[in-house]
Design goal:
Helix content: 10-25%
Number of strands: 12
Number of helices: 3
Order of helices and strands: HEEEEEEHEEHEEEE
Shape: globular
Low-confidence stretches: none
Distance between the termini: 33 Å
Length: 183
Amino acid sequence: MANKPYQSTRVLNDLGLLGDVRRTNNFRLLIEGITGDDNYLDLIIQRAFLPKVSLQVLELRHGNDAKKLAGVASWQGGQVTIMDVLSPKELNTLIKWFAQTYDSKTGTIGIASEYKKKGYISEYAADGRLERRWPVEGLWISDFDPGTLDATNNSPKEITFTLQIDPPTKMEPDYFGYPTLDN
């Protein structure tokens, strides 16, 4: 076997990108059509999720052997924690959106085409440049926690809610300003 020159398998080397690593605190979540005037809901977010997918494992038995195959894909949203600000607009907007899913006065579940929304989770570089945007579809609130009151604690009050998602039309995020392996 002939000696081959060393070849790098690092993707960053191939793309010429040996810069800073991504940070988890530079992000933004935008949700379309919640405010009623087709504007985005833009909140002061402490923590947010990225879309997660898992495959059910199917086991096919043949004699004394078992093979594993991919089954149903299950997409998971996650929790979002925002700062509870003094303005009632943010909280009331979230409550109104949740009420589209479940009306506590009548006990009825809403119509999916009215309460499911589309949005984007955007990741930014340290200098504020948009780098990566994850489109998320079928967003709706499945769990709503307006926070806790605690006289012994002086930390900011937070609101937490869980967002469910539908499978996206594409799995990969959109990239901005960086070449990808496809181009």
